Amino acid sequence: MKLSEDFWTYPAETESGKTLIVTGRDNIDAVRLSGKYPYRVTVSWDYTPLPDGFPDKETADLMEQADEALRTETRKDPAAVITGIYTGDGIRDWVFYTRSLHIFRNILNRALEHLPLLPLRIDAVEDPEWEEYLEMRENTYIPPEE
Question: Which of 19, 66, 74, 97 pairs as cysteine with 37 (C-beta 3.0–4.6 A)?
Fold first, then answer.
């Protein structure tokens, strides 16, 4: 199953009034409805924010390297799918859905092995209905023609 590389970006607002950039993956209903990805994994990176809530250039550059490594590795191994990325107010979250937590751990380790040790926190829950994805999409989706 070929995964869509279509994403949308939406400037939301955090509870503290800061901007939160939400990037969501589009056109993945076939993956979502397959029932093969019951686990949601959130990989979080807390950072010291600038006054606008975003990371400094050095941190942002390292986050982009991690982002590209994660995207590259999940293209190679479709056992995990990036569905959303949230950045702002001192935190970056990557949200994945995966077939297996064990396999996801291997994907994550392979993706980040060439980077310095990163201050990541990883949380996993069962979410077979993709509730987080559907809520994010409902609240932030911007159709391509807009």
Answer: 97
SS3 71: helix
Count of beta carbons in the 10 Å neighbourhood of residue 145:
4
What is the per-residue pLDDT for 15? 86
Cα 105 to Cα 59, 62, 98: the distances in Å are 23, 20, 10
> Which residue do the tokens 């994994």 mark?
41
Query: Quick check: helix, strand or coil at residue 80?
Result: strand
Token pair of 34, please?
């397959």
* Domains located in the chain, CATH noted: 7-140 (3.30.70)
**For residue 89, pLDDT beyond 70:** yes
- Residue 77: name the closest of 99, 55, 48 by CA: 99
User: Average pLDDT of 79-90?
Assistant: 96
User: At residue 63, what are phi and psi to the nearest 5 degrees?
Assistant: -65, -40
Statement: the pTM of the whole predicted model exceeds 0.85: yes
Cβ within 8 Å of residue 66, ≥6 positions away? 45, 111, 112, 115, 118
